[in-house]
Amino acid sequence: MSxxxxxxxxxxxxxxxxxxxxxxxLHALKSTVTLVNLIPPTVSFESRGxxxxxxxAEALSTFSESIADDIRDRVVLLCNQAGATLANPSGGLAxxxxxxxxxEGFLGxxxxxxxxxxxxxxxxxxxxxxxHFDLIVDLTENGIHAAQLPPLGYHAVxxxxxxxxxxxxxxSETVGTFDKPKFFRLDNERCAHASRGLEGCTRCIDACPADxxxxxxxxxxxxxxxxxxxxxxxxxxxxxxxxxxxxDPENTQHFVFDLIQGYRQKGGEVPAILFYAEADEDxxxxxxSMLPNNTIPVRLEELASVGLDTWxxxxxxxxxxxxxxxxxxxxxxxxxxLEQELAVSASFLSDLNIEPDRIVLKAVDSLASLTQYSNAxxxxxxxxxxxxxxxxxxxxxxxxxxxxxxxxTTPVPQGAPYGRVNVxxxxxxxxxxxxxxxxTEALSSIGSRPGMTFREQxxxxxxxxxxxxxxxxITLEPRFNWDxxxxxxxxxxxxxxxAECISCGKPFAPVSMVNMLIEKLQNHSHFEGDAIKRLxxxxxxxxxxIVAETMINNPEKQMxx
Length: 561
Prior knowledge:
The protein is an alpha/beta fold. β2 (51-55), α4 (57-64) and β3 form a beta-alpha-beta unit. It is flat and about 90 Å long.
């Protein structure tokens, strides 16, 4: 990086560009209001600065030499190298040995457990008489804590996530109360993870590099102390059960819409939108100098906090391209989520005969090799509204309307949350188990008579319906239906006449279900003789028949009544 750019901020660089596009870009960025939460909810951490440093004997010896005298009284060393001893016994620092170590928790509340002879022991209690350590410095090469993005207060020096100097500085300075934004909103009513003992979608759990998400009692939970706001869970979630909150994607989309409009009003031509993470801003200055001045940078809290619905909306609003500027140290799980979204976007754009790299993920240091486009696909002058899924579908419909391709349905990449449910109606008994577990109501009952309906736009391919079907007549078909009307309309999948109660004549259940139950239970001891007829009765008549039989067979009960 040049000396000039080392001292030049992104804003300073943008202010130096005086051509028409550069001035239009500067005007748009300065005049467009950024919508953020003024007072976001937060979580608090309490730390006294008690640190555990864990590693091999050699690593501990080297590290302990650099520990300043004023913090040595709150540092504990743990050698996890079996059979090893420190050549220099750590200069008065508390030192323990143990190779079977587990570490859980977060800043101010790390539980470190050693196992000795199969018995777990709390090291903080042994070392200092406290329940927890406040900080961890992990010098081990592979790391004791498995998360790709360790918790706040966990300094993975051995994995090169931070330097030894940064870890020493953290021990010195991390004392007191610290607040962190709560990055997410969670609405379990929308969640497609599980229902009635069955597991469905796990996209959010798979996407989190901090391992902050888990399933407890079939419900997704997010530990706000472990969450570090990468946003990949919200982008991966197909139902908006999890949404990003700093700001939410809808505000980001509206901001970009206003940005493009302001750019055009000042004579700017064919903008390209470049999304980048706030932490990477300093590295972006050199990259911006390699790009034309129609490239408008948009800062995000994290790169994965917006996904396909936002990217497609930006193309619809008139951007020639959406560029995702990626830092080299982006966590694997976060990058994987972005690459999955990009695979879906490439599939959609290819179907429409649009260059797939109109939406592209590029490393910040390789932006100079970017293929650029001089034309916009659309110039839609109204903001897209609705749910995440509705905006995505609206964007695709607008792009399809401009395409020369005559599309009906096309396949989507494996795992994409788009498609239909197919039902083999010959063996379906309309038990409605699938309807009961459907999280989006893509499958729904008719209500007035036995039957179920399906709306393709709402189906996220979670698989709960397929798992719940006792007759195994449901299969999933991943695809995208380009026919807007058929995708959005609610079709009847299967219906049949209701069986009428043989006692009162009231319709009460599908004929196929009644017949199936009679066939399966006719030899059961509970349904011998006339008892089998109860399967052809409504609930009220069935109860009355059972009570009447009980009275006849048990006169003493009749007397009590």
